[in-house]
User: Fold this.
Amino acid sequence: MNGKGRRTYKLMIVDDSNIMRRRIERSQQFEELQLVGTAGNGLEALELFRKTDPDVVTMDLTMPRMDGIECIGKLVALKPAVRILVISALADKATAVEAMEKGANGFLNKPFTDRQLNEAIAELMR
Amino acid sequence: MLYEQELKTFVEGTTNFFEVAAQQPATIGSPYLMEGSPSVHEYTGVINISGKREGVVYFTAPKAMLTVLLMKMQENDFSHETMRDLVGEVANTISGNARRDFGRDFVISVPNVLSGEKPEFPQKPGQRSFIIPINWRSHSAKLVVSLT
Assistant:
């Protein structure tokens, strides 16, 4: 719970770009989201996920070592209730469908505005 | 070789990037063809393309432009590493967005970033690249698309 009696959700941000990780952290406006960590690829994300047990994850797809699609499947296997928002430049429908089939709950294309990011997160947490 | 509609995909992707990420539109000059590797600016983000098309897409820009772009994105870290990160992210975003038209068989790599050096790509004899000139505020950059 936060100070206003609302439930808090643990947030993990996964993106191979430091700029994007900071941008998402800075731009999201939800008091109930508490950042528990950031990761630069799928392997780091898995390790961090096991340590911090996040409720909400933003996930890039094109990353070194382990890509986002593979990572989504592994995170959902560990915690089926996790809510995952894919934030990726990959703009083809087939990739979005594959991410959703693996267990993602939303898909936001880069580049995005702050408003688009917050609407996507709001939809994810509904 | 690129078809006109494919070239339009990259022009639109570039326009969209500056409109959304930098909140200020860029002016795109007339694309032109050239043989060999074009000159580059201080930072270059390279995406290797494989699958149904092969080649490279790269975004090359001067430090001064990237600095202003970072300010517009409300970044306060202007280090060499952040410049490299940004130029790779721009190349990744424009290339990834191109899959809207090219489809998922247009496979993009993670960005390979060069700073200072001239990129050397193995090119087939006679291989040509499309250069898309980008003017934003008082700065110039290029998107280079070389696909077979």
In short: Chain B touches chain A at residues 16-17, 20-21, 70, 73-75, 77, 81-82, 85-86, 88-89, 92-100, 102-104, 106, 108-110 (CB under 8 Å).
